[in-house]
Amino acid sequence: MILRELELVRRVRWLDLIEVLLTLWVIAVMVLFLVQFADEIETGLGVVKRALGLE
Amino acid sequence: MNYGLVLVLAALWLAMATMAGRTLLRIGGVTACGRFESLVLSVAIGFAFGAYVVIGFAQIGWLSTPMAWTVLGILALLSIPTLRRQRPREWWVWVKERLGVFRVPGWRRWLLLSLAAVFAVSATLNLISVLAPPTEWDTLTYHLAEPSYFIRQGRMSFVPYREWPTPLTAEMWNMVALLLGSDRLAQVFQWSMGLAAAGALYVLAAPRTSRSVGLLAAVVFYTSPHVLSLATSAKSDLAWMTFFFLTLHTLLLWRERGDIRWLWLSAMLLGLTLATKFQGLFGVPAIGLLLLFMQGEDWKRVPVRALGRVVVYGIVVGVVASPWWIRNWVGGGDPLWPYGYPVFHSDFWSQELHDKYASWSQGPGQGIGHYFAGLWNLTVNQSAWQFGLRLPITPVLLALLPFVVLLWARVSSKTRWFFVALTAAALVHYTIWFETYQQTRYLFPVLAVLMIPSAYAALHLVRNTAPRFVVGGLLAASLVFFFGYNIFYNAQFVPVVAGSESEEAFLVRKVSYYQDLQWLDQNLPSDAKVLFYPLKTYYLDRDFVRGDENLWEISESTTPEDYLRFLRERRVTHVFAASDVFATHRWGQRITSIIKDLKSSGDLKAVYTNHEAIVVESRTLAQFDHTLVEVLEVMPTSELGRVG
């Protein structure tokens, strides 16, 4: 779909797979990035929760 | 100095420098550019001009408060022609027109407003933080320590401590601030260069892509933790990046506008890049490659002229950068001291030290696999780096750069050429950086320019394609993460700026040996000279000589008599001995043993001992350790001979 929208291809169905793969790529990069900072994010969220009186 | 006065002085100096820069650009015939572009260029040229005036005065030994005001006077005189041409109404119209960029329909309006808000809040938080006393490590080691030392000495000189021979163009503004009596002012000056760097990135991107792309790239850049740490210190990196982005911009303008004056301005800006940091050299081959490529047909049609341009470009770059290179050449026999050791066999350095530092690396490795995995390691594999997860780098780069290839058919020819030029320059810059010790901060100019195609891909995908929610989510998550990082990082400075924490308590928590340094400043005679083994000398308000390995001929065979002779030859009156430094110093054990002998013989006398001296390991995470610090007085010459 993405490739058709970009007018790179018009008829090849299997290229839909590439769109799925690229979408997964973006998700994977973001997840891998955030996982690196899981401890820091947890600490940050803890501070926010305490500030809001939720913890 | 109170905060209001600091901000007023900063605004006055920067306004004068900017208007002086505008006048200089007009004198050089550089007028055909947009108002924001003109503003950013004027800031850069005015900042550089002010610094070079300070260099001139400092070289003749005039380092005093009247000198600082004289520099302001010169800037003010140069500002007059620009000031007379200003029409406030035109500025108002321009601002209203700029604000018109937000009058777009639908979600794009909210996106642009959000980006502007994130930028404004981050810049404001950073401004609050620079009003706190300086605590950043390199700032205390040389960005402020060196100007402070020169002021105390009454002249600027070559000092062979490893970090000190770095070019100091941006630090000349730190010198002005210290002469005016405020180290916070120095931090505000460098903070303003953070805005200039973001502005320069916008100016580089917007005319060749779109305003939205320029804004997104500038915001992602400015909210990056690397830029955050620089914009809250007195470091010179942001001035370096400003000059580098504008070098690229003006070089491209030469081709786009067909006016040779942009080429010469680009040469001057590249010279300023080199005159701000040695690492500016990483960008020289990249710019050189672009210059050669951009001459295109000229190499066939008018080869002599084409070659002449390259030669003159190089001469202009060299002349602008030369003050610092000459200083190092005269003082240390090496314009790039000590990095030019293989060629110049620098004074005060050795093959052994060269080999030691050349083998340093912070990166995960230097193999071919590491080369191609660079962006991966930088963004999602940061634990592979020597110092781990200190400053995250945005994943937007890694995630979205591949999409630029898919979007290529949609990219206009103007933008295509721009992306090709950026990518080629970034690749060359990256390759050179990869061969050095891989300090991530020194790659930031490359990461910043790559944010432009990434921002282009992001906005195109969000606007036009099916996975818009995934890409939008990536952008939002990334910005929220970095915005949160900014808030938590800056929070450490708020209490002291707000007055709820005393400066003394703040500095004790953030600066190693601060209490011990205070004791030195309050108890040593004003003519004392301290042998100081740690690197961060800024808060030491006495003459000193550092205990760097290259300056003290210590080895296993050094005797207490030798050591005492060294101390007396260099007129050292006191030794600042910190156990934690000796634990990592190459000859630390030997020096500890010698000091013990000299204490026993009465040639050194402990006048201060602190078993609980504080060594800060992370100022942000408030991690610290305790160590033993002693201040030892060197007993008078008449005592010589008692050793042994």
Write the layout of secondary structure elements.
The complex is a heterodimer of chains A (55) and B (644).
Chain A: H1 2-5, H2 16-36, H3 38-51
Chain B: H1 3-27, H2 35-59, H3 65-85, H4 88-99, H5 107-130, H6 137-143, H7 145-153, H8 171-179, H9 183-205, H10 211-222, H11 225-231, H12 237-257, H13 260-274, H14 284-294, H15 298-301, H16 303-332, H17 341-344, H18 351-358, H19 368-372, H20 374-380, H21 396-406, H22 413-435, H23 444-464, H24 468-491, H25 494-498, H26 503-510, H27 514-523, E1 529-532, E2 543-546, H28 560-569, E3 574-578, H29 579-584, H30 588-601, E4 604-618, E5 623-634
Helix pairs in contact in B: 1-2, 1-3, 1-9, 2-3, 2-8, 2-9, 5-9, 5-10, 5-24, 8-9, 9-10, 9-12, 10-23, 12-13, 12-14, 13-16, 14-22, 21-23, 22-23, 23-24
Number of domains of chain B: 2
What percentage of the residues of chain A does DSSP assign to strands (E)?
Answer: under 5%
Arithmetic mean of pLDDT of chain B: 91
Percent helix range of chain A: over 70%
Q: What helical percentage do the residues of chain B reach? A: 55-70%
Structural shape of chain A: elongated
Average pLDDT number of chain A: 72
How many runs of DSSP E, i.e. beta strands of chain B? Answer: 5
Reading side by side through the largest sheet of chain B, how are the strands ordered?
Answer: 2-1-3-5-4
Low-confidence stretches of chain B: 639-644
**What gap, in angstroms, lies between the N and C termini of chain B?**
52 Å
**Quaternary structure of the protein:** heterodimer
Radius of gyration of chain B over alpha carbons? 26 Å
Largest sheet of chain A: none
Biggest contact: A-B, 24 and 31 residues
Give the helix/strand class of chain A: mainly alpha
Count of domains of chain A? 1
Question: DSSP strand (E) fraction of chain B?
Answer: 5-15%
